[in-house]
Amino acid sequence: MSKRKSSSVSENVNKRVRPEQEEDGEEEEDENAVDSAGEVVSDAGIVESITLKNFMCHSLLGPFTFGSNVNFVVGNNGSGKSAVLTALIVALGGNAQATNRGSSLKGFVKEGESSADVSITLRNKGRDAYKPEVYGQAIIVDLRITREGLRTYKLRSKSGQIVSTKKEELISILDNFNIQVNNPVSILTQEMSKYFLHSKGEGDKYKFFMKATQLEQMREDFVYIRTTKHVTEDKVEQQNECLKDLRQRYKEKEERYKSLASLDEMHTKLAELQKQMAWALVAEMEKELEPMKEKLHIHNKIKASNITKWAPPSIFRREQEVLQRSIDSNRRNLQTLESSRSNRLRRFGEHMPALLSAIQEAHRRGQFKHKPLGPLGKTCFLKDPELALAVEVCLKGQLQAFTCDNYEDEKVLQGLMARVFTGGRRPTIITSQFLPRLHDTRKKAVNHPEYPSVLQALEIEDSVVANCLIDQRGIESILLIKNRTVARRLMHGKNPPQNCFQAFSIEGDQIFTNRAYSADQTRANYLSGDVEEEIRHLQKELENQEAQATRFQQQMKRLDEDIRQNEGLLRRAYTDQKTEEELQEIVAKISSKRAEFDQARAQMTDLKASYEEAEQAYKQQKEQINTIAEDADPIKEDLNKAEQEMIKCKHHKKHYDDKRSTHLRNIQSLEADLGSKEQELQTSVSKATEICPERLEVRRSARSMDSEINRLKVKISTQQEQQGDREEVVKQYQEALETYKNLTQQMKNLNSFIKSLDSVMNHRLQVYAELRRFLSARCKYYFDSMLAQRGYTGNMAFDHKNETLSISVQPGQGNKADLSDMRSLSGGERSFSTVCFVLSLWAITEAPFRCLDEFDVYMDMVNRRISMDMMLKVAAGQRYRQFIFLTPQSMGTLPVSKIIRILRLKDPDRGQNNAPTNQDEDQ
């Protein structure tokens, strides 16, 4: 067997390494899949290189480039072998105690330096790669330790780009690769080896077995979970007590909340009573008015006065005034149109050109942040001129409006308008941020196959103006339908166009889905395209109106003349009628007097005859008078009585005349009271209508309802004082309910979790016991196999109850009964047995790499060679795993193999860098 050549760094600085070392890319490709013999090699998690700077007592160690399978780090004591292993542990998240090299990280910083740096490159290939799209085929872990003991990480991709600085990311990487720096099977330091393997205690070996197989970690996890479960159960018991108190509090809040319902009922009843009270007062006032109306019924019959004879002239005068106003308006419009022949802006008002000039000058001076735009109608042009009136009626005064980007510009524009428009109405100013792009109206715009929207019917030069009209008027949702009948049928139908809330006809009629309005405007003033045609149309209309006005004036003159003639005739007729009536009265009197004269003449003749007879009778009666005189006295007494009765009647008449005057005064007072009462009634009806629009039939009196209202108000006030603010009561109830529900659900979830945890824990404990038994059996099997390679026999006795592991070994062929404890073996035999124990643990545990520090320190040459052959054999059978052995031996007797790489360290020189020789000797 040929010996391995070795040389120092100084001897081989310029020496060309073997092809396997030179072509790193080729080696990586080979190791990423299979080697030349077809064996699978490691893809992910192995250490590709490590570099140390100012670490422990070394200024610079490395970079060390490791092979994919077997690596020997060779060097004398103090050369830095253990520093490499310590740096590997610390850089991959281990604490200082795990290295057995110190109690604090700051102890790893070289004396006199401010920080120490470690850089480790981990392979990141294959199906187990960690975020290969981010890190690539390698992950570089950079660790810096400061003099104060602070540790910072930088996780870089293969290209060197920093991906993360968080330790959580490093832990995720280690979990993905199954790297366990605290597992003695993965990284076995000298101190750990002395404590566990070379210890004479059976308990220490058992602890080593448990720690290596992670059964100890599982047991600790079980203990922690069980403790957590007990703590959770205690908390559940405590929360159950809290839940009772919370339930009581919730019930109290619920009672207060429910009492709000009765309060609502009282409020509702109060509102209803107030409505009834209002109409009850109206009904009572109406009852009071009925007698007064009956008494004054006779006075309410007012004779119809003369039919107003001035009605026709007044109607004509009103029509003449309306016509004159229309003529004046058309004359002004005509002047505006004639002036707009040369300047279209005058169509929007005679002051508009001056205003735009003032805006331009102010903009030139920088008074505006953004130049205002307007009038808005200036940039709007119709695609169909027939729709001019409809669009104008739709947009109304917005065609003359201006738009500003901000309120500062609006103030400046207001000042310009005040200067230009000294009197009259100013244009509207719309303030809205100027946006360069047109609004997206696809979702809310109306799209009809036959009729355009206002937005579609216009060509608007500026998107800011278009956005302004969209925001202010919603022109994307208004249809233009020429025929008003079709428009009404479409809008009033069951399915009006989607997103359309109104439409306009060609005559300017505005049609909603449930109503319609006619337009007051009859022609377009701003959007008409043909100015000459508009002027001709307006002139013709003006001529017609002036002719009509002339006819009205002539007709008025004729009416005035007729009125004057009728008034003269009326006066003469009145005089003639009065004279004729007096004449007829005189004729009647003459006829009456003539009849009386004839009657008197006839009576005269009769009286003469009677006189003669009377004279004869006189004589006879005279004689009788004397006789009758005595009988006349009683008659005189009766006459006196009659006169007294007449005087009494006159007194009665005066009394009743006075009473009649009193009644008349009462009627006048009653009329005044009736007017006042009717006014009060109207006021009461208005108030009642505000309280309750619909009249209620009330049977109760207002007084009884007023008493009940007062009682109810007192009751409501008392209950509100007891309950507090309504919103606060509702809020407290909702909070209490939510808290109670949440805690109840939490308790339910916790109880369910504890129950599930009990079941899972029982199952896991069974699996744990089975796994421990299985791993113990496998460890025994591999231990016997390793011993048999040298002809040893041995036995491993696990006592899981007492947590001991007894290992007995018989060197050479012998009887099982002759097995002796490892303590009775020689140093070399004991070290060999220890190696067999470690190899058996390797066989039952998983990790991407394994590190041993001075594994052969107590072996003689024979046991060292046998142990080395065994480890190389194991390594050859596990090409997917990396092995790193640290030894002070020269390793010159190693067999030739492509899987072996030796990193030979320089002898210690504290003042110089220490790097591996670049011969690295692959065998």
TrEMBL record:
<keyword id="KW-0227">DNA damage</keyword>
<protein>
    <recommendedName>
        <fullName>Structural maintenance of chromosomes protein 6</fullName>
    </recommendedName>
</protein>
<dbReference type="GO" id="GO:0003684">
    <property type="term" value="F:damaged DNA binding"/>
</dbReference>
<feature type="coiled-coil region">
    <location>
        <begin position="528"/>
        <end position="631"/>
    </location>
</feature>
<dbReference type="InterPro" id="IPR036277">
    <property type="entry name" value="SMC_hinge_sf"/>
</dbReference>
<keyword id="KW-0158">Chromosome</keyword>
<dbReference type="GO" id="GO:0003697">
    <property type="term" value="F:single-stranded DNA binding"/>
</dbReference>
<dbReference type="GO" id="GO:0035861">
    <property type="term" value="C:site of double-strand break"/>
</dbReference>
<feature type="coiled-coil region">
    <location>
        <begin position="229"/>
        <end position="263"/>
    </location>
</feature>
<dbReference type="GO" id="GO:0005524">
    <property type="term" value="F:ATP binding"/>
</dbReference>
<keyword id="KW-0175">Coiled coil</keyword>
<feature type="coiled-coil region">
    <location>
        <begin position="702"/>
        <end position="753"/>
    </location>
</feature>
<comment type="subunit">
    <text>Forms a heterodimer with smc5. Component of the SMC5-SMC6 complex which consists at least of smc5, smc6, nsmce2, nsmce1 and nsmce4a.</text>
</comment>
<dbReference type="GO" id="GO:0000724">
    <property type="term" value="P:double-strand break repair via homologous recombination"/>
</dbReference>
<keyword id="KW-0547">Nucleotide-binding</keyword>
<keyword id="KW-0233">DNA recombination</keyword>
<dbReference type="GO" id="GO:0030915">
    <property type="term" value="C:Smc5-Smc6 complex"/>
</dbReference>
<dbReference type="Pfam" id="PF02463">
    <property type="entry name" value="SMC_N"/>
</dbReference>
<keyword id="KW-0539">Nucleus</keyword>
<dbReference type="InterPro" id="IPR027417">
    <property type="entry name" value="P-loop_NTPase"/>
</dbReference>
<comment type="function">
    <text>Core component of the SMC5-SMC6 complex, a complex involved in repair of DNA double-strand breaks by homologous recombination. The complex may promote sister chromatid homologous recombination by recruiting the SMC1-SMC3 cohesin complex to double-strand breaks. The complex is required for telomere maintenance via recombination and mediates sumoylation of shelterin complex (telosome) components.</text>
</comment>
<feature type="compositionally biased region" description="Acidic residues">
    <location>
        <begin position="21"/>
        <end position="33"/>
    </location>
</feature>
<feature type="region of interest" description="Disordered">
    <location>
        <begin position="1"/>
        <end position="38"/>
    </location>
</feature>
<dbReference type="GO" id="GO:0051276">
    <property type="term" value="P:chromosome organization"/>
</dbReference>
<comment type="similarity">
    <text>Belongs to the SMC family. SMC6 subfamily.</text>
</comment>
<feature type="domain" description="RecF/RecN/SMC N-terminal">
    <location>
        <begin position="49"/>
        <end position="890"/>
    </location>
</feature>
<keyword id="KW-0234">DNA repair</keyword>
<dbReference type="InterPro" id="IPR003395">
    <property type="entry name" value="RecF/RecN/SMC_N"/>
</dbReference>
<keyword id="KW-0067">ATP-binding</keyword>
<dbReference type="GO" id="GO:0005634">
    <property type="term" value="C:nucleus"/>
</dbReference>
